[in-house]
Amino acid sequence: MWNILFVIMNELLNIGLTGNIGSGKSTIAKALKIMGYPVYHSDIRARQMYYLKPVRDEIYQLLGDDAFENEQINLKKLAGIIFQDDEKLKAVNSIIHPRVAKDYRDWLMRQKASVVFQETALLFETGMQSQYDAVITVIAPGEIRLKRTMKRDTATREEVMRRLKHQMDEQKKADLADFVIVNDDKQAVLPQVLKILSVLDEQL
After folding, report:
1. Beta-carbon count within 10 A of 165 CB
2. Burial class for 124, CB neighbours closer than 10 Å (0-12, 13-18, 19+)
3. pLDDT per residue over 24-33, tens digit each?
């Protein structure tokens, strides 16, 4: 599946980093950032965009007061609505995803490094894999992912399960990826990351 496609203007490798909720992809992204690699955090940027007035207005037209608190979008309320209604989830994604995609393209054009990463949860689900030179998928056992997410988001098991049903099966993501990192609290992740980076360096 390996297919190197250089972004000609910057001559860089554009690498996708994904994984289901609770897999630990954000931890891998932080490690890459510490090592000096530029990382675009799609989920963080998406959350920031909910504070933009045009986005607030569109969400209000779609959902009314139910997703708001003190005239701002309450992300916990929003999640409670959209993860129980596929049509509303698609509608909200259609508001957010194009903005994140444009923001990422703008960010990418400013980069000077030889290898950059985009951390994004729904990479395969949205058919984005063709825009990368390679994709890394982070995996972890289901129960570990559940417990991590419940602790991180102070969410119930049922709430996390509702979110998971909108994500592709983890093994399928692993099969589609160019590289896989196992983050099961048993295997050290740093050697896995360094091995992938050495392979990427060989392509430059």
Report:
1. 8
2. buried
3. 999 999 999 9
Distance between CA atoms of 161 and 151, rounded to whole angstroms? 14
Domain boundaries, the chain: 1-38+115-204, 45-110
Query: CATH topology of 1-38+115-204 equal to that of 45-110?
Result: yes
Looking at domain 1-38+115-204, its CATH architecture is 3-Layer(aba) Sandwich (3.40)
**Angle subtended at Cα 94 by Cα 61 and Cα 130, rounded to the nearest 5 degrees:** 175
| Whole-number Å distance between alpha carbons of 40 and 111 | 11
Closest CA to 96 of 61, 159, 48: 48
Fold of 45-110: Rossmann fold (3.40.50)
Q: What is the pLDDT of residues 182-192, one digit of tens each?
A: 999 999 999 99
Q: How many CA atoms lie within 13 A of 32 on its CB side?
A: 27
Its pTM stands at 0.88
